[in-house]
Amino acid sequence: MAAPPDRQLKDAADGAQEDFQAASEGVSDKLKLLESERKDWYLPATTDDDGDGDGDPGCYTVADALDAIGVGRFHFKLIVVVGIISVAGGLGSTGFALFPPLARCHLGLESLHEAFLTSAPLVGAAIGGVCLGYVATRWGRRTELIIMMVWTSFFGFLSAAAPTYWWLIILRVLVGFGHGGTGQRVSILFEYLPKKYRTLGAGVLTFCWNIGNFLEAVLIKFLIPTGVAWRLILIADATVFAIGLLFFKWLPESCFYLVANGRKKEALKLLEEAARSNNTKLPAGELVTSEEKERRLTEVISEPQGYRDTDVFKRRRRDPPPLRKSSAKGWVLKDLFRPADMCLTTILLSIAWLGLAVAVVGCAILTEELLQMRQSLGTECRTTFELIHGDVCEQLSSTDYTPVMLIFASEFPALFLTYFSAGILGRRKALALAFTLSGLFFGLLIICPLSTAWVTALLAGARMSVTTCFSLMIIYTPEVYPTVVRGMAVGASRALYRLSSAGVPFVSQVMLRKSVVGSKSVHSAVTIMVAILCLLLPIETNNRQLGE
Asked: How far is CA 376 from CA 27, 134, 370, 514, in A?
């Protein structure tokens, strides 16, 4: 029996309503599915605990890889190489100051000629710092360090056989040119260390450098009786660089440099080797630059643009913007002055490196000059003094070098001062404190009369302080600059340091013998001024990732 018309109409209406609800639910489910897929496309599947997005599964940077690799056997081999370079650099740099007095009596040098002999390798180092810094930026840190070791050892051996004063000057300039490239050992070590180990790594390099300084004083003490100590010292300095060449296979190229120059496969191979050597693993994903990773994270977090919002079924992802081309192959000095905060940093750091040379080189020269003055004058106070009287040339004996050894031994406590001050106070305040202490010790040397014991104690305090300054500067400089200009920045900084060092002998030797108080006052005033400038540095690098 057929249903009444009104009943048929009601059933038809109910069926249509059910079909409409089913269709609506289907469309809603489809929209939810598309929206979830869209989130999957653009939001990281995992994030760090702090939610900063560093856990993006699609990519990782060299810095991320280094944090995952940690420190192990790979780093031990690297430290052996850069440690030998540091010992050789310490021997050579101390020899710049202690070598000329050894040759003074043998070659019959006056104070001005002696100052020129001290300045010669420092002038070469200033030129070498810029030239070898370019090599490090253009062709890599490893290439630069190998060239530096070959060059320095070769001309070091030749300088030991120099027949005349002027031949010695020329060869010492060439030796100094090679020394200008020793600063890249810091760059390559920092570019393989996780950020939390960089201060410790700098401490290891400083320790090796201090060993070189101390060994130079020990060698001089025991070689003086031979009568040709100055030639044997030059041979010893060159030999250590030659020993470093035996371990060149343990010296890898910088992964930061390789990635910045588009050589990601080579960088990945080195990182995998480091991970295997340390029994660790690399992060999952693709190796990219920090700029590319930041771009990806910006894309996944920000609201997508460039979509056809009128049709949810046809939305598509826009093409990524092109990456900024690295300037690693374009060595341009103005890159160190961009942007504004980097410009201020470069200016202040340049002045600080100039002042650091006055402190470090001046302290080394004053060590021998003031002890020689005390030996000659006792506790007598004079405004001037001379070490050559007619045919008589005064020179420190083997026994007199015992205080020199004690003064250079004071560099080892500087390791602890560097480590704790840099970690607790931060780089800038630690630098200001170290330069202030240096200025105070130089100022106290003005007091007269002082016994040899007091002079030794004050010079030891000054040596400890300036060593801390030097260590903190070699930590801060490569940390504050990105990879594409780091080699150039380190090279230019060392060039400024050596260029300033070339003028220091005329203050610490020539001026000292004409005005004792004036020379000491210059050292004190310069270091106090640099302490103030360090507080004005705009960038703090403590616990900061190296930029690319």
From this structure: 101, 47, 10, 15
Position of tokens 């060869």?
A: 171
What is the distance of C-alpha 483 from the center of its chain? 12
Report how far apart, in Å, the C-alpha atoms of 364 and of each of 134, 214, 429, 499, 523 are: 29, 12, 25, 16, 12
| Predicted local distance difference test score (pLDDT) of residue 126 | 85
The amino acid present at 496, given as its one-letter code, is L
| Cα–Cα distance for residue pair 371/469, rounded to 1 Å | 24
- Contact (Cβ atoms closer than 8 angstroms) between residue 160 and residue 238: yes
CB 258 within 8 A of CB 249: no
**Bridge partners of 392?**
389
Q: Specify which residues 60 forms β-bridges with.
A: 287
In the prediction, which pLDDT does 402 show?
85
Tokens of 385: 């003094």
Phi, psi dihedrals of residue 308, rounded to the nearest 5°: -90, 90
Q: What is the model's pLDDT at position 384?
A: 60
CA atoms of 47 and 70, how far apart (whole Å): 21
Query: Which residues fall within 8 angstroms of residue 252, CB to CB, at 6 or more apart?
Result: 78, 142, 188, 192, 270, 273, 274
pLDDT in the model for residue 318: 40
Regions of the chain with pLDDT less than 70? 1-57, 298-335, 338, 341, 375-394, 449, 545-548
Does this model's pTM top 0.85? My answer is no
- Residue 531 confidence (pLDDT): 95
**pLDDT given at position 328:** 41
pLDDT in tens, 438-487: 999 999 988 876 778 888 899 999 999 999 998 899 888 888 888 777 77
Residue 475 main-chain phi, psi, to 5 deg: -80, -50
Q: What is the pLDDT of residue 138?
A: 86
Q: Which element (helix H / strand E) includes 170?
A: helix 165-179
- Please tell me the distance from the alpha carbon of residue 416 to that of residue 359, in angstroms, as a whole number: 20
Residue type, 440: L
Q: Which two tokens stand for residue 546?
A: 């190296």
Separation of alpha carbons 149 and 127, rounded Å? 16
What string of H, E and C letters represents the secondary structure of 354-398? HHHHHHHHHHHHHHHHHHHHHHHHCCCCCCCCCCEECCEECCCCC
Lookup: tokens for 14: 């109910």
Q: How many residues does the chain have?
A: 548
Backbone angles phi, psi at 287, to 5 degrees: -80, 120
CA-to-CA dists, residue 321 to 151, 263, 296, 480, 525, angstroms: 45, 21, 10, 27, 52
DSSP line for 89-136: HHHHHHHHHHHHHHHHHHHT--HHHHHHHHHHHHHHHHHHHHHHHHHH
Is 249 exposed, middle or buried (CB count within 10 Å of its CB: 0-12, 13-18, 19+)? exposed
* CA triple 481-483-484, angle to 5 deg: 100
The rounded radius of gyration (Å) of the Cα atoms in the chain is 32
- Please report how many Cα atoms fall inside a 13 Å half-sphere around the Cα of residue 62, on the Cβ side: 29
